[in-house]
Task: inverse folding
């Protein structure tokens, strides 16, 4: 005889439709000016930054860069819902989150400009730096959360991962331990449908990625990742639960990667222009703008003014970045250990001599 | 059979196609290798030619890729898996070290593990962090694991074929900095080069230069410069880092009496140390100077702004050769 | 490139509306030719073509919105010269004349030779510094390898005694041959005198010696054989090919006078003269110095009475003739002074007996005394 040992469900939260019109009766908290205008402004800023970063890369002033085009709502809302004392454990596409949490834009550019000092900004506090090896950040987030819990601090950890990353063992191990230990961590999946060239459909056969939470016994839910209002609701509640000691949440934010994987990738090799065009119709920035216009909280004049202001802000940050002095080669040695072992003194001298030689242009190296 | 002037990367592609055409048990798996043809295009066109069943885009999981390869290999298939960058090979370590390296030994030959794991490695392409690793010593240290590194299109073609045909696991590390750096004429004749063998790229009499991977490029440049100054360099590409063909290195040093070993990887515990120690044991009487090493620093590979300070360059090699030539006991 | 994507129009807005296409699918366009006019929030912008080519597809129609980075136009034919990477930049080969690679599998031939060599680079370097010739050095190390001590010892010898002279040519061959003979042969020497007082004035001494040997070989053919010490076998000869030792400035030569038993005297004399001339002129071919079945060493023109000349394998006997001298001998019970030729015969006792040797000597004496 059979009985059902467990039945689960995954909730999907949306407030705005694809165009930005309400899906039903909107709650009062969604109808005011704030925080929605602020969100919109930050999303526009994020997009400006993104466009500029790509442009810098194309002109050889920035290294390979991972665009956040299409993920503005996820980044802005998650960062805004976090408190200062919460800890961010990003992957490699969360530049806007770092920006909103206080990292100067010039520092963000510094990281992508091949300079380790980009991850050293004091404004980053206890946040971890960008994570490149996929999904490793999820376990680190659990570690941070464990420290918070052991110290009885009532803060939350928020970490972000792509849809591809959810196939990795690190992700599954993180969910498991987060559940077993009831860690104060919020996992946000930026499901932008693509892991470089591998589509979501090839990554996992489960109908939702959120239901991987059920395997770990933690709460899992979906949200429209291009709907700032929905994100505000879902992420906010998850962070509150975590701070209150009520355990972890896995949030799958449904979105779309409107850009190439990185500036060195070419998505036209593997995805159709039609699909991309259709995705633009669900642009998170346009949708929020539409809602704000409807509610009378935003207009063309404010748009122009804001565009001008963000442009200036970004130009100033780029100027700062370009003016940054070169890193001395001693930094290679001084930051490897707390104190550089004397056995490396010879190599340090060789490195200094080499830097001097390069500066004199004597190496024949480009 | 066509004769093309092709790059190292295209030679990899050619060898893969050849191996797959010759043996239906050869199957490719990895991230972005199918539709996209690989992020460096190493597998371009192969899924179109051989189908999705044999060129598989996997979910994003390196442990899975390595583990699956072990399993497939034990059943007689010849999986050729791609790890997108050597910086992402670490999750695969467990399956390489704990399983691939010892499957034959612990079943006393009943099962074996004829898998190949390919990965681009090394720095110098202006990439973000983690994409410039040169940690071949970690793998070469493991008994049971072959580590093979080509340094030219012809050696890429011949050695990859050999690796795929080898009945034991091979880690095939492709130096990405020279993926497209030069083109040579390759005949697609299916001929493999021998594993476990060094290649003498240039015959010389005054000093032996020993290297592998992308540094072969700078080593040959250094040899050219030194030739103009009257120093005759013998250049040897080690190619297989485990097991190493010490006999060739000893023979060369027996003739020249001096050597410089060059590698991009950090100095401490790098494979240069293994070669220097063995030369000290087996060619002691021949050596006129201690074996000298030109290597990467014992620091992390810096982000790309300082990459060129870290990587050994031609000047570094020339300086080391001159110091070695001038050494008097 | 295959796809031309809408570039950043420099206004911070990612989208624009297509106002009007200036080209159609199938058109051939040039670089900078205007493809389309698009409208942003601020202005109408004309977008130029980045390359020459044939348009195979236009993305979107007038009125459609298009975003930065979206494909705008597809060019026919050429596949994207794509960056071929997902991070960083890979430098591409510039040279178009590419060649076949050439490299050696394993060690270079000169290196392979170096491995078995008697000397290492360190030893060679030392020898060079001390000005010692390695060619003349005997290696006392394992497998005959020359050691540092060998070099240093030679250097000190060179300083006190002078540098050694390496043997060449005939002297070198003689050293080798004699060493080999000494190693193999079991020599016994028999000495006797021949009374030649009665010989007419102007007798051809060498010729008489040759004829005497011919007679002795006929009497005792056992001494005209070749002996194989390994197989323990003898080859008997029908003819007598006599090796005649000739002393020159360059060294010892032993040309062969063929078939001495069957040739008239004049012929033998002429042959001998010819051999001597050719040897001195160094024009004698190697074949003329091979195949002797027995040898004569006439040192009688120089000095010496008896000797123990060396038997050179595969021969088993050699006759030595010393200086002819007037000396007292017994004739019946009287003492008279006669001309006497001292004779020595060395034989290889592995192949011949003392009796055979003695009878050979007897026949020699008899012929010479006639």
Result:
């Amino acid at each position: 005889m059979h009985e059902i040992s467990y039945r689960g469900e995954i909730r999907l939260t949306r407030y705005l439709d694809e165009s930005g019109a309400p899906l039903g009766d909107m709650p009062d908290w969604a109808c005011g000016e704030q925080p929605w205008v602020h969100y919109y402004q930050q999303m526009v800023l994020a997009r400006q930054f993104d466009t500029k970063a790509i442009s810098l890369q194309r002109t050889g002033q920035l290294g390979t860069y991972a665009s956040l085009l299409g993920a503005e709502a996820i980044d802005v809302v998650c960062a805004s819902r976090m408190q200062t004392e919460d800890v961010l454990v990003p992957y490699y596409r969360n530049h806007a989150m770092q920006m909103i949490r206080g990292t100067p834009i010039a520092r963000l550019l510094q990281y992508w400009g091949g300079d380790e000092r980009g991850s050293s900004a004091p404004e980053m506090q206890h946040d971890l730096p960008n994570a490149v090896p996929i999904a490793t950040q999820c376990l680190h987030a659990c570690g941070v959360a464990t420290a918070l819990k052991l110290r009885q601090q009532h803060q939350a950890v928020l970490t972000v991962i792509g849809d591809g990353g959810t196939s990795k063992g690190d992700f599954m191990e993180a969910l498991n331990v987060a559940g077993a230990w009831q860690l104060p961590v919020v996992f946000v999946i930026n499901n932008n449908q693509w892991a470089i060239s591998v589509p979501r459909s090839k990554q996992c056969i489960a109908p939702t990625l959120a239901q991987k939470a059920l395997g770990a016994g933690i709460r899992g839910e979906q949200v429209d990742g291009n709907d700032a209002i929905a994100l505000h609701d879902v992420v906010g509640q998850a962070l509150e639960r975590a701070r209150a000691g009520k355990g972890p949440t896995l949030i799958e934010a449904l979105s779309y990667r409107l850009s190439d994987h990185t500036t060195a990738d070419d998505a036209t090799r593997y995805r159709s222009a039609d699909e991309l065009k259709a995705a633009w119709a669900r642009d998170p920035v346009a949708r929020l703008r539409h809602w704000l216009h409807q509610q009378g909280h935003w207009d063309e004049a404010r748009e122009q003014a804001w565009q001008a202001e963000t442009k200036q802000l970004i130009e100033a940050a780029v100027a700062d970045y370009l003016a940054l002095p070169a890193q001395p080669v001693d930094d290679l040695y001084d930051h490897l250990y707390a104190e550089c072992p004397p056995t490396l003194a010879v190599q340090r001298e060789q490195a200094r001599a080499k830097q001097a030689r390069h500066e004199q242009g004597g190496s024949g190296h480009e | 059979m066509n004769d093309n002037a092709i790059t190292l990367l295209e030679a990899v592609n050619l060898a893969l196609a050849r191996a797959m055409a010759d043996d239906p048990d050869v199957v490719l798996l990895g991230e972005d290798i199918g539709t996209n043809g690989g992020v460096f295009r190493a597998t371009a066109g192969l899924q179109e030619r051989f189908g999705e069943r044999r060129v598989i885009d996997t979910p994003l999981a390196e442990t899975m890729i390595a583990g699956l390869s072990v399993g497939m290999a034990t059943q007689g298939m010849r999986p050729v898996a791609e790890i997108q960058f050597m910086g992402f090979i670490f999750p695969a370590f467990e399956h390489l070290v704990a399983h691939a390296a010892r499957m034959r030994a612990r079943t006393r030959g009943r099962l074996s593990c004829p898998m190949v794991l390919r990965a681009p490695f090394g720095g110098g392409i202006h990439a973000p962090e983690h994409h410039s690793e040169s940690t071949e010593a970690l793998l070469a240290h493991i008994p049971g694991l072959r580590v093979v590194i080509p340094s030219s299109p012809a050696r890429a073609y011949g050695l990859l074929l050999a690796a795929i045909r080898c009945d034991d696991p091979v880690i095939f590390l492709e130096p990405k900095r020279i993926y497209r750096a030069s083109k040579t004429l390759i005949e697609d004749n299916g001929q493999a080069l021998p594993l476990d063998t060094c290649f003498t790229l240039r015959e010389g009499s005054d000093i032996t230069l020993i290297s592998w991977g992308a540094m072969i490029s700078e080593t040959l440049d250094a040899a050219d410069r030194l030739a103009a100054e009257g120093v005759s360099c013998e250049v040897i590409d080690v190619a297989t880092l485990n097991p190493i063909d010490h006999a060739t290195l000893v023979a060369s040093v027996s003739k020249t009496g001096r050597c410089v070993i060059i590698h991009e990887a950090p100095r401490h515990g790098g494979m240069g140390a293994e070669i220097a120690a063995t030369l000290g044991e087996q060619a002691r009487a021949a050596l006129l100077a201690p074996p000298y090493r030109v290597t990467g620093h014992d620091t992390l590979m810096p982000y790309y702004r300082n990459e060129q300070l870290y990587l050994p360059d031609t000047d570094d090699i020339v300086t080391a050769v001159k110091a070695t030539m001038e050494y008097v006991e | 490139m295959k796809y031309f994507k809408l570039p950043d129009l420099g206004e911070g807005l990612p989208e624009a509306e297509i106002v009007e296409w200036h080209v159609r699918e199938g058109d051939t366009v040039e670089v900078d030719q205007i493809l389309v006019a698009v409208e942003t929030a601020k202005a109408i912008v004309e977008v130029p073509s980045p390359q020459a080519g044939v348009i195979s597809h236009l993305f979107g129609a007038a009125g459609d919105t298009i975003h930065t980075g979206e494909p705008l136009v597809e060019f026919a034919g050429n596949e994207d010269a794509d960056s071929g990477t997902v991070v960083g930049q890979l430098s591409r080969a510039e040279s178009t004349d590419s060649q076949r690679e050439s490299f050696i599998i394993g060690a270079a031939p000169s290196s392979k030779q170096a491995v078995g060599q008697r000397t290492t680079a360190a030893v060679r370097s030392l020898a060079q510094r001390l000005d010692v010739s390695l060619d003349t050095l005997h290696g006392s190390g394992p497998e005959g390898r020359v050691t540092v001590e060998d070099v240093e010892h030679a250097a000190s010898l060179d300083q006190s005694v002078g540098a050694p002279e390496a043997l060449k040519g005939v002297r070198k061959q003689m050293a080798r041959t004699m060493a080999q003979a000494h190693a193999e042969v079991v020599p016994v020497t028999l000495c006797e005198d021949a009374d030649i007082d009665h010989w007419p004035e102007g007798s051809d001494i060498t010729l008489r010696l040759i004829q005497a040997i011919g007679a002795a070989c006929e009497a005792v053919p056992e001494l005209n054989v070749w002996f194989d010490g390994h197989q323990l076998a003898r080859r008997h000869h029908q003819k007598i090919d006599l090796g005649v030792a000739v002393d020159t400035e360059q060294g010892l030569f032993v040309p062969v006078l063929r078939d001495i038993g069957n040739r008239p005297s004049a012929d033998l004399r002429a042959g001998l003269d010819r051999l001597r001339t050719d040897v001195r002129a160094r024009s004698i071919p190697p074949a003329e110095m091979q195949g002797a079945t027995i040898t004569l060493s006439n040192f009688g023109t120089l000095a010496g009475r008896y000797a123990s000349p060396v038997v050179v394998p595969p021969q088993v006997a050699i006759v030595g003739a010393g200086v002819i001298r007037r000396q007292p001998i017994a004739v019946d019970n009287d003492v008279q002074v006669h001309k006497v030729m001292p004779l020595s015969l060395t034989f290889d006792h592995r192949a011949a007996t003392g009796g055979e040797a003695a009878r050979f000597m007897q026949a020699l004496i008899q012929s010479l005394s006639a």
